[in-house]
Amino acid sequence: MKPISIIPVPLSQYEFAEFGDVLETEKRDSFPINKGMCRRYDRLSDVTFDNGIGTPSISIFRGKPYKLPLQLKLLERHPFGSQAFIPLHSNPFLVIVAEDMNEEPLLPKVFFTNGHQGINIKKNTWHGVLTPLFNECNFVVIDRIGTTSNLEEFILTQNIIIEAFPKKV
Asked: Among 10, 13, 85, 154, which residue carries the largest CB count within 10 Å?
């Protein structure tokens, strides 16, 4: 079977809306706080989780870099809560998401961030693993923690290759 080749595209709220929210300050309303020394960009996204099945948690994930081209082997989803990734760096990273059909992911869409964007993936949305590209990087992760598993994995049988994207981001 011939591999499917995907070239990542720039991440934007318009293109990403069906999968979640882009966390960024560009083109967002804000207001001054702390006597004008700080701007607050309010409600960029909502943390969601099924009531009574866990609590929201803040963690830090440290991801090792991937090299492109990359063979995509796994997608996952979290049925009981959203999952936000907020970079503690300014390096672009990949965001891999897919629509669902009959409890299986369709062909993924692949985005690259501009180095200043985070994401909040809607609950029950198929997505790739954390995929930094250039350096080992830390991310603040906000998601649901509980005694009930909130992870479903899907091993891809089709050969899907994520190609390099333009270096100028």
From this structure: 85
